[in-house]
UniProtKB/TrEMBL annotation, chains A, B:
It comes from Rehaibacterium terrae. InterPro entries: FAD-bd_oxidored_4_C, FAD-bd_PCMH, FAD-bd_PCMH-like_sf, FAD-bd_PCMH_sub2, FAD-linked_Oxase-like_C, FAD-linked_OxidoTrans_Type4, Oxid_FAD_bind_N, Vanillyl_alc_oxidase_C-sub2. This is D-lactate dehydrogenase. Belongs to the FAD-binding oxidoreductase/transferase type 4 family. It comes from the Bacteria. It is an enzyme of class 1 (oxidoreductase). Pfam families: FAD-oxidase_C, FAD_binding_4.
Length: 464, 464
């Protein structure tokens, strides 16, 4: 059965429920809700713009009666195709459920609707001296609901955790149209099965989140950056292990491989020494403690293979130390118009082996592949550069992607650290988990979503 | 069907599988595996002592064929009756699966069997400069598997998290006899549904954990204690909120209410000023940072209602500041031979309201009830003192318990912060979660354990 259009009875029911301006059916309007940052696109049958949880309950029940697929949507900044309505059906955009319901400084929490922008939440929490740790690059325009869907991270996760570590409670509507409440507005709880963390990272395939209680963290008033260059990736990885093994946790610990350093220098024009690898290290704290934190991180950064260690005396100088990273993105674009950017993750000690494996794959497939990313978590962004207009190159890029995933899994890593699986990686999931685990994922999914209407075609591979 | 004895065919199969000394059937031996720290006791049909995961897979399959209940057991230190075999069946003690398989300092992780003692793990990790944050009072003789079963916490959870925050991956055998592997040995992952955190706190009702990959944390070399006394609980709770709202996280933040302070002084003989509430505050760090951390916590501890603030110049003096807490337990025993100790949790701002409610319940039921515990997490241990030999008093204690839970739930809290539900609190679970959430818990349990053989009668209330 096609889900390109709403059956008239369902269209009437949804229009009654959502009001005249709460259901978009015009193709020109629907089109803009059919893409995400994966560059994939598909046409939904309609777009719902609910304003309250009870509407979400009712719209799921109505869709379920018609077997109509439902795709929850924040702002479409995800990179995996998770919010592309490949099976048609109803896109539920949470853009009108964007309120911060409550900030409770004494309890260090915020209660929000899923459509609130990460950046808006940060501003509101900042007025009370707090922040919410997940900080993906898209923070100004991505939603908290989307962060929950893919277990978003960002550079500060190395000290403060990713989304799963920073959510206390959720209210969500299952595919059966039941509103479930899980978790407690406390930082400790041991009362039955933990659906809160289970829903995080489930990419809209189990339930639609309609309210989230977020754990806030006191905002350190000061930050200071260090930039360390190493002769090779092995020396940098050993430094990462030293930095993570001492008690002063870096608030950021970012990595660039030698190709990235070379591109930033030679193509991007960054004024940095030649080196085989680069680490950007950040300390945070207050006036009394920051110096000591910087000193501890400087000591840990030093070791065999260190080429240069630069400290930024203040925040502005810290920004200038990022020149290499900033020069990198335009440099990559001059090399090739297209890139496949995968956020694989490996144990920290395996970073050199991963970079070696990636370089071998790059030679084998005759394509530039560069690695940079969140080294403290072993979460590297592997960028396979290619020209999408060149069919042979694109095929080699796809072949390289499969080989990268195989290398990551052989190194005890996994497919994604913070982007999720979505559409683009679902066919690789069966390589990453055992058949027994995959069978259990399917069985549990069926309890949340008995008719399989929630985000079909995502996360789980096709059941053949 | 009775599960007091193994059917002969099952007894033979298990003896073949586990060897002569791997299956205990003598009543005197079985008896010692039938209790836990809840003081409840029941007789299992037999006790299995597996030495490897493959035996656990086979014994679950054998028990499933006979519909025989299975109760996983660490060392029985839990307080909720979760390891008491109330339905008979087979107790699986993990005492022979107690190996530390691997400690990887560069990857900040340890891979262990479930029967390893928490204290043994801490010693082994300490040799590499690390610790594993969960530190229940029973740490020297409780197992990591037991910590995982009830999502154990302890005083350091306020800074470093409880068990759920410190486990990266698990291997576990479901009630269907399938070995599932979940998680990755990395601190970030977004690859399908998160069974790792879901199994933590599930009290052996979903699967038997046979291997755990634990996240280790660098051990701060120094710790320093502060003791703050306040005029009333409200002033102390305001100080807790201030302490938690600034960037230097206390490594412990323990609370005693005014009755505890009075008992410690008048009955226990502790040399402390009279006060309405007490906080024990701990900072950790190294020689360069500790002073600053202590100063930051001292500033935050000061405010309206502060009666006295004492700093311990060194670790030994810190121990002496604990005199009040140490005097408390014997003082409580002189008041009444029995106590019901529940580890409820509320948002930090609700601590004063909880203590008020508990005092009202104490007056109403004419029983002493005192509160102390992990204030930074809002996780208070409510101790209802009574004489178990006095039937009327015991009935009033039970009535008080129900009223305490109602008060906690009305304050947005929940039944347990770190002990779990087990046998003793299962009848209260339906007050803490909605019918929809409870139904989903049952539905998911059935996917892990289709025949309901794993720890029957625990966590979930009877399905009537």
């Amino acid at each position: 059965m096609s889900h390109d259009l709403l059956p008239p009875a369902l269209a009437r029911a949804l229009a009654d429920l959502l009001g005249d301006d709460g259901l978009l059916t015009d193709p020109a309007e629907r089109l803009t809700y059919g893409y995400d940052n994966s560059r994939r696109q598909a046409m939904p049958a309609a777009v719902a713009l609910p304003t309250e949880a009870v509407q979400v309950v009712e719209l799921v029940r109505a869709c379920r009666r018609h077997g109509m697929p439902i795709v929850a949507r924040g702002r479409g900044t995800n990179t995996t195709g998770a919010s592309v309505p490949v099976a048609g059906g109803l896109v539920v955009s949470f853009e009108r459920m964007d309120r911060i319901l409550r900030i409770a400084p004494d309890d260090r929490l915020a209660v929000v609707e899923p459509g609130v922008l990460n950046g808006d939440l940060q501003r509101a929490a900042g007025e009370h001296g707090f922040f919410w740790p997940p900080d993906p690059t898209s923070a100004p325009f991505c939603t908290v609901g989307g962060n929950i869907a893919c277990n978003a991270g960002g550079p500060h996760a190395v000290k403060y955790g990713a989304t799963r570590d920073n959510v206390l409670a959720l209210a969500a509507v299952t595919g059966a149209g039941e509103l479930v409440r899980c978790g407690t507005p406390t930082t400790k709880a041991s009362t039955g099965y933990d659906f809160t963390r289970f829903l995080i990272g489930s990419e809209g395939t189990l339930a639609l989140v309609v309210e989230a209680t977020l754990k806030l963290t006191p905002l350190p008033p000061l930050r200071r950056a260090l930039r360390a260059l190493y002769a090779d990736v092995g020396s940098a990885a050993a430094a990462v292990a030293r930095l993570m093994a001492q008690p002063v946790a870096p608030s950021m610990l970012e990595f660039m491989d030698g190709d990235c350093v070379r591109l930033a220098r030679e193509v991007g024009g960054a004024d940095i020494p030649a080196a085989g690898a680069l680490l950007m290290i950040q300390a945070d704290g207050d006036a009394a403690t920051l110096e000591h934190a910087v000193a501890a991180l400087s000591r840990a950064a030093q070791g065999p293979g260190l080429v240069a260690l630069d400290a930024a005396p203040d925040q502005a100088a810290g920004e200038r130390l990022w020149a290499a990273r900033k020069a990198l993105s335009p440099a990559l674009r001059t090399l090739a118009p297209g890139k496949i950017n995968e956020d694989v993750v490996v144990p920290v000690s395996r970073i050199p082996a991963l970079v070696d494996a990636v370089q071998a794959i790059a030679r084998e497939q005759d394509l530039p592949i560069v690695c940079f990313g969140h080294a403290g978590n072993g979460n590297l962004h592997v960028n396979i550069l290619h020209d999408p207009a060149d069919v042979a190159q694109s095929q080699r890029a796809q072949a390289a992607l499969g080989r990268v995933f195989d290398a990551v899994l052989a190194l005890d890593g996994t497919l994604s650290g913070e982007h999720g699986i979505g559409l683009l990686k679902r066919d690789f999931l069966a390589r990453a988990v055992t058949p027994q685990t995959l069978a259990l994922m399917r069985a549990v999914k069926a309890q949340f979503d008995p008719d399989g209407i929630l985000n079909p075609g995502k996360l789980l591979p096709e059941d053949v």
